[in-house]
Automatic annotation (TrEMBL):
InterPro entries referenced in this protein's UniProt entry, alphabetically: Ig_E-set, ML_dom, ML_PG-PI_TP, NPC2-like
Protein name: Phosphatidylglycerol/phosphatidylinositol transfer protein
Annotated signal sequence range: 1-17
Domain MD-2-related lipid-recognition: 44-165
Family to which the UniProt record says this protein belongs: Belongs to the NPC2 family.
Native organism: Vermiconidia calcicola
A Pfam family of this chain: E1_DerP2_DerF2
Domain of life per record: Eukaryota
GO biological process: intracellular sterol transport
Job description of the protein: Catalyzes the intermembrane transfer of phosphatidylglycerol and phosphatidylinositol.
Amino acid sequence: MKATVLILSLLTASVASTRSLFSVSNQNALVDEPQFSVPGKNPLNFCADPKDYILTVDYVDLSPNPPLPGQKLTITANGTFNKAIEPGATVFLQVKYGLITLIKQEADLCDNLPQIDMSCPIEKGVMTLKKEVDIPKQVPPGKYTVLADVNTVDKEKITCMESTVVFSRG
């Protein structure tokens, strides 16, 4: 589950560093695809049916939900890795503000694990994690979307999540 919190933390930190916050939506508005909600108190969806994902998520709770500018975001998550995650795993991150792409990059998952006091390999089994992230006060109002697609070195799907968050003026 630490990987999910890492992903959420990276998403939030990445967007916060561009003075934005995270969200993800289905970018294909012409297709009415089913939503696969991530369990817990959060605005997250899996990108597809998570039955074959390596990470089985029990819950991801965000507080406050939805995230608010100028407040600390607490992420609490729990889940099970159905197999160990070896070095070479990647996370593809895309962050949009409306239709404008702010971030579109692939990074090594293991290189980012020290941010949450972890390292590779991630052992098979249950994990629980709590992480706090500061959200800047100056988040411009608008719709933010985030996509995080995480795969093993062999391109097996660890998880894929997306979310949409709308910040209002005031």
